[in-house]
Amino acid sequence: MKLLVANWKMNKSFNDGLRAIKSIKKKIKNDRKKKYIILPPLQSTLYIKKNLIKDDVIFGSQDCSQFKNGAYTGDISAEMIKKVGCKYTLIGHSERRIMYNENNKVLRNKIKRALEQKLKVIFCVGETLISYKQNKSSQFIIRQLINVFDKSDNFKNIILAYEPIWAIGTSVTPKMNEIDNIHHTIKKTMKKKFNILNIPVLYGGSVKPTNAAEIFSLKNVDGGLIGGASLIASEFCKIYDTL
Ligand code: PEP
To answer: Does the CB atom of residue 98 touch ligand 1 within 6 A?
Structure first.
C-alpha cells in the first residue's frame, strides 16, 4: 500500500479547504494499492466533513497533545482529534521540533496518547544540513527513532516519514540513492531494535510533480508527505498519479 499525505500546515480555512477537497475528489480516488490522506487545520476538517455530500476522504491532524483531556490551554487531545473523525495524526514534524521545542520526551508522550486512541501515527524524522554535510544523517535519524519508540508500541499503527530538514520548502532534495539508502537504514533499524519488518517509510521534502515519479520508484520509498505542493489541488493530484 502506497500513501500520499497532504500537510496543509496553517493554510486554507473553511471554504478554501472545502473547495480544494472537492477538486481533489473529482480527480483522484483511493484504491487497494494507494490512498491519499489530507491534514487540514483541525477546525477546517470538521467544516469540510460536514459539507461534503459523500464523506469518504481520509483525514488526519497535524499535531496531537501530549496530555489527556484537562487544563491545557490551547491544546487539542488525541481523543478530540479522533472525535472530529481523523484517522491519522502527524507527530515530530521538524517545524514543531524546532519552533515549539518538542523534544523526545514530548514526542514519546504524543505517540502514546495517539496510539491509546487508535489513531495512526505518521512520525517524522530527518537530519539537519550540518549532519548531512558531515555524513552523519544515518546516526542522526537512528537516534530520533530509538529515543521515542518502545517495543510495546502497536507498530501496525505507525508510519514513518523521512524529511531532511534542509529539504523542506527549499526545492532541494537529497540525491535519489541517498533517499533510498536512508529509507533502507530506517527499515533496518526498526527491524533490529523493535523487531518490526518492513515498516512503511514516506519521503517528504520538496516533492513536486516533476520529481515525484523518480522518488516514488525507489525501492524503499512507500509514498510521500507533501507540504507546499499539496496546497494546489492540481499539483497534489499530479503527484498522486505518479505513485
Ligand atoms: C513538509 O513540511 O512536511 C514538507 C514536506 O514540505 P514541502 O513539501 O513544502 O517541502
So the answer is: no
pLDDT along the chain (243 residues), means of 10: 98 97 98 97 97 95 98 98 98 98 98 98 98 98 98 98 98 98 98 97 98 98 98 98 98
Of 95, 102, 127, 163, catalytic: 163
Is 93 one of the catalytic residues?
yes
SS (H, E, C) the chain: CEEEEEECCCCCCHHHHHHHHHHHHHHCCCCCCEEEEEECCHHHHHHHHHHCCCCCCEEEECCCCCCCCCCCCCCCCHHHHHHHCCCEEEECCHHHHHHCCCCHHHHHHHHHHHHHCCCEEEEEECCCHHHHHCCCHHHHHHHHHHCCCCCCCCHHHEEEEECCHHHCCCCCCCCHHHHHHHHHHHHHHHHHHHCCCCCCEEEECCCCCCCHHHHHCCCCCCEEEECHHHHCHHHHHHHHHHC
For ligand 1, is residue 168 a contact (CB within 6 Å)?
yes
Residue whose Cα lies nearest atom 1 of ligand 1: it is 227
- Report the residue among 225, 230, 231 best suited for mutation to probe ligand 1: largest number of ligand atoms under 8 A from its CB: 225
